[in-house]
Amino acid sequence: MKKCIIIYSKTGNTRSVANRLNEVLSCDFFEVKATSDNPSIQNVELTEVPQVGDYDHLVFASPVHGFSLSHVMNTYLNQLPDLSEKTVDLFITHHFPFAWMGGNRTLKQMKKIIENKNGTVRYTTSVNWSSKKRESDISNMIHTYHS
């Protein structure tokens, strides 16, 4: 099974978690990039668009922006081709004290896009950057996604 991790990271928090996951998965690693990282820009122009065609297992990761999926990752996911026969894991990072303050919504948004493209979402994880449980949440996610 050929795997890859595809992320968007504005501050580096999502990237740091993805790097830790990749230490275990040892797979291809890509970043989605846009002309601007300004979270208020709605019409995002992507400058780096990773291709997923050769992969069976995908991990997508994004921060939460304004209680929702970042516009950059939203634009990227929506332009993906059909994801039939692909297994997908998702994780997001956020600073809100509770997952219901954007984390859960963001994961639901990502999952809906993937499922509308016929992909199968296996695991979802919300990493709260300000939580005392952050390290254990990341470790648990890495263990789960590696299985």
UniProtKB/TrEMBL annotation:
PANTHER family for the chain: EXPORTED PROTEIN-RELATED (PTHR39201), FLAVODOXIN-LIKE DOMAIN-CONTAINING PROTEIN (PTHR39201:SF1)
Lineage: Bacteria, Bacillati, Mycoplasmatota, Mollicutes, Acholeplasmatales
Top-rank taxon: Bacteria
Stored InterPro entries: Flavodoxin_dom, Flavoprotein-like_sf
Protein name: Flavodoxin domain-containing protein
Residue ranges of domain Flavodoxin in the record: 5-93
